[in-house]
């Protein structure tokens, strides 16, 4: 497994969000909101793959920490949990998926708001949890984030390409190079790629301060698909092991 660079830091888990000032292409704006408001405002209820999914979009350390705690709560009864993962546009978005919950972290935006270069300690701990297997799209091992011209990689304890996982379990080498759509056909999972209403997304939507519901669906399509494919092949493997036993 690829060894990745990790910066360990101890960042506070805020009970309240301090005053922050962000400078971006829309001009200078002051963002001062209490944590309860941020937690309510960051929730999206979306339908994808025929399921209703709770999505939290986090652009503060406090909401990111809260979202990770929610994911842990969802899989706490599973001794060997899997977590879908994806990195979009060099860290503009870091996504996790568990059961019917998705966490979308606006990672580069959080670094900008806090003027930091390091991976927060609670996120590093999550990625390094030896009990979690992270499953993502092809080349997930090489996904990284770039902030202020500094190139860094996320460090996972256990991470696997969903194509490799499917190929190993099904003993079919051709699955190694399959697209997500081809893998879904192989394992009988049906997920429609989100259709954009006007045919195209706005420029640099991934780094926007606010995501539309349509953009959230587009962002989570791959992480959701990876999780569903992995869940299906692992379920079949476990049923087969029980039958043989």
UniProtKB/TrEMBL annotation:
Signal peptide feature range: 1-16
InterPro entries: 3-5_Exonuclease_domain, RNaseH-like_sf, RNaseH_sf
GO CC, any one term: cytoplasm
GO molecular function, one term: nucleic acid binding
Keywords for the protein's UniProt record, in alphabetical order: Hydrolase, Nuclease, Signal
Highest taxon in the source lineage: Eukaryota
PANTHER family noted in UniProt: 3'-5' EXONUCLEASE DOMAIN-CONTAINING PROTEIN, 3-5 EXONUCLEASE
Protein name (Swiss-Prot/TrEMBL): 3'-5' exonuclease domain-containing protein
Organism: Capsicum annuum (Capsicum pepper)
